[in-house]
Amino acid sequence: MVDASTSAHGDLTLTNLTKSFGEFVAVDDLDLVIPQGSFFALLGPSGCGKTTTLRMVAGLEEPTSGKISIGKTDITFEKPYKRPVNTVFQNYALFPHLSIYENIAFGLRRRGVKDVDKQVQNALELVELTHLASRKPNQLSGGQQQRIALARAIVNRPALLLLDEPLGALDLKLRRAMQIELKWIQTEVGITFVHVTHDQEEAMTMADTIAVMNEGKIEQMGSPADLYDNPRTSFVANFLGQSNLIKGSIVDSSGGSAVVDIFGTKVGLAQDRNHAHDSSVLLGIRPEKIRIQPAGTAMHGNILEGGVISDASYIGVSTQYQVEMPWGQELMVFEQNDDGTPPLAKGDAVVMSWEPIFTFGLAGDQDATAGSEANPDSE
Amino acid sequence: MNKATRWFSRNLIRIYAVIGFAYLFLPIVYTFVFSFNDSKKSNLVWVGFTLNNWKNPCGAPDVCNALGNSLKIGVLATFFATILGTLMAFAMGRYAFKGRSVVNILIFLPMATPEIVMGASLLTMFISFGFNPGFWTIVIAHVMFCISFVVVTVKARIASLDPRLEQAAMDLYADERETFRRITFPLVAPGIAAAALLAFSLSFDDFIITNFNSGDVNTFPKFVYISAQRGLPAQANVIGSSMFLIALIIVLVGQFVGRKRAGVR
Fold first, then answer.
1. Cα(first)–Cα(last) distance of chain A, in Å?
2. Alpha carbon of A96: minimum distance to chain B alpha carbons (Å)
3. A112 and chain B in contact, CB less than 8 A
């Protein structure tokens, strides 16, 4: 039996990992290195292959081809009970006939660990549920069950902890609290966490690094800020938050900043945020980065004129505008309600501007709506 | 008038429940009451109250011999049917194999076949194989018709088992054997127990198939049937009532244990 506390520590490496179910390719030639000790999120819509990837790492699914290793140890075809990997299952999968104490002790007992009692107590203390040790799982609330599932996995000190949509069954408030708690526990124990989720906010709150998955492939990988501010594909731009993507063409790329023509207006685009292959570009700007004023107001930065507000919704912290542009596209603008002026109204003519540094450019040949229909609450 | 109608409509479900339960339990109450009847030959009319029948349940000729046979056959049939049926249920509930859907249908056939047909053909089969009908032919016949019920009962339990529990056990360092021993079996056990109880009660009170395949071995249902033609001794009521009470106790204990296991307070 593998002693999870000593063997096979190191980075998780997936090499050319592929899993097909008949004709359907769930995971498509995936290459990924997850550094030891990181909090890593696999983010994507349902059916993107993230859960299949996780199950292959756990040993619950056998890869069609490719390799999985932790450190230098190849675990591709290792039985699940011989891997230094533990999983927090989507619906917790607590053993209903065993007490909370025995649930947590399960892995320790199977490995023949000596001081079971001390370690179980420590795990219970970590999740602050010591008083529930003798209860059965169905006597616990959803949030408590979630924490026990976490304790049951963490107590084994695996090289790698896999979390499969661990907060999906909790209500919003509890989910927020658990996000912070999970992040804290990960820092505390220092185990590599691989977290699978379709909830972009959850991924961004907790993970150091996020890999956005779509149709079995990784679209983009990076820190939450990097993914949000500098997306490389329209899928990422739309799946993580919301984006305005405007068709344009690059008319001058000689300087450090490219000049893009969008329907007759010239705007600046920093070269390190330009991911277009040629002159055809989808110019991206996040709704909250745009300043909006009545038409005729003097603005600086990238300026777009000629918009008319087609819809305004006041939502407390901000007002969300839909602005219809002369070329027919509607742009989203989120304006903080922080300057004491009354919100603009439907029908008002406006001028918009933003700092050129916030602009990002995507290859113009892709679907500008990719990833935007993905409903974060589905699955 | 109006008040009475309102009372009636408010309590309609209760009244219906009382009538329904009366219909279900009146025969059992009758059996129980007549087990105290001081009857001489036939236990059809109330003569007077006595405890003699309960003090001496083996008083009627051959009743306890027949009961003993029924219990032995019941235990043996239950034992074999439960083991075989449980293994079949696991195979059918857990593994995809060629012809599984056909097997799923075939397993219902013994339940759907009229007992009279099954009893007669079993006898033909035993005779053509050169078996003399007796104790073991009854056991074989009972195992045969109990298996289907065991399979169906256990399979339902297996189907309701979340496969993630076993995956979680494997994830927590339990190999296949440990996973079965610690997780799968304990969780399926209530279904197996229910199946065993069902098999026993089916075996214990089977008359038709038994009558064909028993030769000169007497069982309790056979005894009751044969004596009923000459006048049933009150001891039959005593044994019938006892069986009912034992079954009731088993059910109540089962409920209690089940609640405790589930952790309901």
1. 36
2. 8
3. no
Q: Which domain holds residue B66?
A: 61-232
Q: If you ran DSSP here, which 8-state letter would residue A61 be given?
A: S
Burial class, B55, CB count within 10 angstroms (exposed 0-12 / middle 13-18 / buried 19+): exposed
Tokens of A354: 């933003």
Residue of B170, B172, B173 with shortest CB distance to A1 = B173
Tell me the per-residue pLDDT of A190-245, one tens digit each, with 9 for 90 and over.
Answer: 899 999 999 888 899 899 999 999 999 999 999 999 999 999 999 999 999 899 99
DSSP string, A303-365: EEEEEEEEEEEE-SSEEEEEEE-TTS-EEEEEEES-SSSPPP-TT-EEEEEE-GGG-EEEETT
Any domain includes B261: no
Confidence tier at B1 by pLDDT (50, 70, 90): low
At the fourth CATH level, the homologous superfamily of domain A12-229 is P-loop containing nucleotide triphosphate hydrolases (3.40.50.300)
What residues pair up with A284 in beta bridges, in sequence order?
A245, A360
Amino acid identity at B110 = P
CATH number, domain A244-360: 2.40.50.140
Per-residue pLDDT tens over the stretch B111-160: 899 999 999 999 999 999 998 899 999 999 999 999 999 999 999 999 99
The verdict on pTM exceeding 0.90 is no
**Contact call for A58 and B186, based on CB within 8 A:** no
Q: At CA A305, angle to CA A301 and CA A311, rounded to 5?
A: 110
